[in-house]
Amino acid sequence: MPILIFISLFTLLDFVVLFSMGSQIGLLTTLLLVLGTGFAGLHLIRKEGVSTFARARQRMQAGEIPSSELLTGAALIFGGALLMAPGFLSDALGLACLIPSARQLMFKALTWLGLKKIASQQQDPNASSARPRDYHTPNTSQQKGPIEGDFISRDEPPRRD
């Protein structure tokens, strides 16, 4: 739920900035900037995506797991989607996803946040997402012998009794 609130607020703020900048610089200039960033993002994604895919294939042929290439590919797709969206804030975040040094900073920040969340869950073992709940009933471990029930094959036509 918090991620949905964050996305909604980001989108709202993005449109507020877009309309504010549009009233300052004019409609035609705003449209040209939005379309230009969209096409530039598409071009950069194609160029970076092909090279990332080639590096991932080389690592797989060498017998290694291409984890950094997969993260880079995900960041490129996310950045491209943000560049295609109308708005100046989404364009800025999308460009940050396409710049390698900014992308590395984002990976480090996300790793730090993930480790922080894991550490907080280990300190509070009763947290709801810390571990999966047990769905076993008390009788399952005590029951011995066959389990009774009916079997219906989906391959056979239904019987008419």
Whole-number average pLDDT?
80
Low-pLDDT parts are: none
Order of helices and strands: HHHHH
The helix count comes to 5
Rg over CA atoms, rounded to whole Å, is 25 Å
Largest sheet: none
User: Judging from the principal axes of the Cα atoms, what is the shape?
Assistant: extended
Structural class: mainly alpha
Percent of residues in helices comes to 55-70%
The oligomeric state is single chain
- C-alpha termini separation: 51 Å
Polypeptide structure, described:
The structure is a single chain. With 161 residues, this protein is an all-alpha fold. Helices cover 70% and strands 0% of the residues. The protein is built from five helices and no strands. α1 packs across α2. The longest helix is centred in the N-terminal third of the chain and has 35 residues.
List the keywords.
about 160 residues; extended
Summary of the model, kept short:
The chain is an all-alpha fold and 161 residues long. It has five helices and no strands. The N and C termini lie far apart (51 Å).
Topology overview:
Layout lengths: L1 H24 L1 H35 L5 H18 L3 H11 L1 H24 L38
Helix pairs in contact: 1-2, 2-3, 2-4, 3-4
